[in-house]
Design brief:
- This protein is mainly alpha-helical.
- The chain has one domain.
- It is built from five helices and no strands.
- α2 packs antiparallel against α3.
- The longest helix is centred in the middle third of the chain and has 29 residues.
Length: 125
Amino acid sequence: MLLSFLGTISGLVLLSQSSAEPSFLVAAFVLGLGNGIVMPTLQTMVINMVKPEKRGVATSTFFSSIDLGIGIGAFFLGNIAEIFSLSQMYLFCAIGMIIPAALFFGITLSDYKKKSKISIETANV
């Protein structure tokens, strides 16, 4: 997960500083790598944190939350881009990624380890 957060933050910083096609393509690759790691990892973690009979609910809640975040983010980030610039909006997103990274490593990871251990033990019974 550290690699995915670093990839996403780095990709957003690179995107905010891109002024030509090659730098834009590098930023897109790094950002895609970060997002490509985080999405299946988080989905797996969500599924492993719940009882087997609640996995469908957990998966639908996970994807609904992503859709909600995209919708709300588009509204707020569109306003930020209009007030400042597109470049500053991407930089704002990179800085904003520090909050979910801190929450993940500070709270979610320990909770995941505890719940996934219980989930694995009950699955083996």
